[in-house]
Amino acid sequence: MRDIPLWVEDEDDDDPTKSVWLEGDSLAPYLGTPAESLDAVLSTARIDSTDVLVDLGCGDGRLPIWAVARFGARRGVGVELDEDLAAKAVKHAQSRGVADRVRIIHADIETNDKLVRAALADATVLALFLLPEGIARLEPHLVRHLEADHQNRILCIGWAPPNLEPAKIVPLGPSSGAGLDVFLFDRSSLRTSEQ
Ligand SMILES: C[S@@+](CC[C@H](N)C(=O)[O-])C[C@H]1O[C@@H](n2cnc3c(N)ncnc32)[C@H](O)[C@@H]1O
């Protein structure tokens, strides 16, 4: 891991005047993976310089940016529905000096199947921090990702897909606020689900 300045939460992240999330209008409201948990989350998948991490619903881009800047991942990609968050992610990538290796795409992953497939084509690690219903809807992509290469992994923060067996569950502890877990899925998750 590279010794770089810790991730600092933006001051306006808890601004109650920001847009209100209505159930059903997206796969999850915005809540960043706690800054204190970024190392624990990415260590769970043993991210290294061979990895390309794709975060579907990337918020302010912290996971793909941290994977590249701190763990030396080859590349990072984040797809985000919210225009302001996507713009913020681009700025964070620039200020961390990794804009050449982190691509932020402003798009709806739910209605853009082609884009998701393209984003996952060369991904090794897929990250998701979405509500259970959102993850369930994306499960066909998750299965395809694990089938595509035996090195591929999936990190789910908070909630996991219903039909895949986690290879590992790591509690993020009180620093995650709500006591979230991170779930790691790999090829073994498929075998288990096929039994
Ligand atoms: C819980 S946040 C997680 C943010 C980030 N992955 C992290 O861990 O810090 C979920 C994010 O998914 C985004 N999102 C929800 N539905 C989406 C969709 N259909 N397409 C793209 N992004 C979406 C939200 O705008 C929000 O930023």
What can you see in these coordinates?
With 195 residues, the protein is α/β, with parallel strands linked by helices. It has one domain (28-194): Vaccinia Virus protein VP39 (Rossmann fold, 3-Layer(aba) Sandwich), CATH 3.40.50. It is 32% helix and 17% strand. It has six helices and seven strands; from the N terminus they run αβαβαβαβαβββα. It has helices at residues 38-44, 62-69, 83-95, 113-121, 132-148, 187-194, and strands at 52-56, 75-80, 102-106, 125-128, 153-157, 168-171, 181-185. It has a seven-stranded mixed sheet with strand order 3-2-1-4-5-7-6, with helices on both faces. Helix 2 (62-69) links the parallel strand 1 (52-56) and strand 2 (75-80). The longest helix is centred in the C-terminal third of the chain and has 17 residues, at 132-148. It is globular. The relative contact order is 0.15. Residues 26-28, 30-33, 55, 57-59, 62-63, 79-82, 85, 108-110, 129-130, 157 line the site of S-adenosylmethionine. Keywords: Methyltransferase, S-adenosyl-L-methionine, Transferase. Pfam families: Methyltransf_25. This is Methyltransferase domain-containing protein.
Sketch the major β-sheet: 7 strands, mixed
What is the CATH superfamily classification?
Vaccinia Virus protein VP39
Given the C-alpha coordinates, what overall shape results? globular
Under CATH at level 1, the class stands as Alpha Beta
Which range best describes the helical content: under 10%, 10-25%, 25-40%, 40-55%, 55-70% or over 70%? 25-40%
Q: What amount of the residues lies in strands?
A: 15-25%
Number of alpha- plus pi-helical segments:
6
Number of strands: 7
Order of helices and strands: HEHEHEHEHEEEH
GO cellular component, one term: mitochondrion
Keywords: Methyltransferase, S-adenosyl-L-methionine, Transferase
GO molecular function: protein-lysine N-methyltransferase activity
Domain Methyltransferase: 54-113
